[in-house]
Amino acid sequence: MFQVQQKITTLSGQELFLVYSKFDGKFIICESVNMIDKRHANIIRNPRHEGQLDYIMKLWGQNSGKLELV
Predict the structure, then answer these.
(1) pLDDT for position 63
(2) How far apart are CA 25 and CA 65, in angstroms?
(3) Phi, psi (degrees; rounded to nearest 5) at 3
(4) Which whole-number Å values give the CA distances from 9 to 25, 26, 41, 42, 70, in the listed order?
(5) How many other β-carbons are positioned within 10 Å of the β-carbon of residue 50?
(6) How many Cβ atoms sit within 10 Å of the Cβ of residue 6?
(7) What gap in Å lies between CA 35 and CA 47, rounded to an integer?
(8) What is the phi/psi pair of residue 9, to 5°?
(9) What are the two backbone dihedrals, phi and then psi, of residue 26, each rounded to the nearest 5 degrees?
(10) pLDDT given for residue 62 in this prediction
(11) Deepest in the core among 16, 26, 39, 42, taking most CB within 10 A?
(12) Residue 2: pLDDT above 60?
């Protein structure tokens, strides 16, 4: 199961999701998710980046301008 942390829409109109994988403890930036409820997903599609929080937040900040989890 995946926990959705944040969702953004880039300037080009593309939606990106920041999710936390409960399977392996990594964070993932992906293009879409299959939501179970407001905060949880069971499937992610088109993962772009995967890794530890520091690495992913640097990439997330480049896309969203947000450098912290809300």
Answers:
(1) 75
(2) 24
(3) -110, 120
(4) 25, 22, 18, 21, 16
(5) 16
(6) 15
(7) 15
(8) -115, 120
(9) -105, 160
(10) 81
(11) 16
(12) yes
Amino acid at 13: G
What pLDDT was estimated at residue 31? 94
Identity of the residue numbered 2: F
When pLDDT is cut at 50, 70 and 90, the band that residue 69 belongs to is low
Torsion from C-alpha of 52, 58, 64, 67, nearest 10 degrees: 90
Pairing between β-strand 2-9 and β-strand 15-21 as defined by DSSP bridges: antiparallel
Of 24, 13, 15, the residue nearest 3 (C-alpha): 24
**In the block, residue with structure tokens 């920041």:** 18
Reported as a single tens digit per residue, the pLDDT across 5-57 is 999 888 888 899 999 999 999 999 999 999 999 899 999 999 999 999 999 98
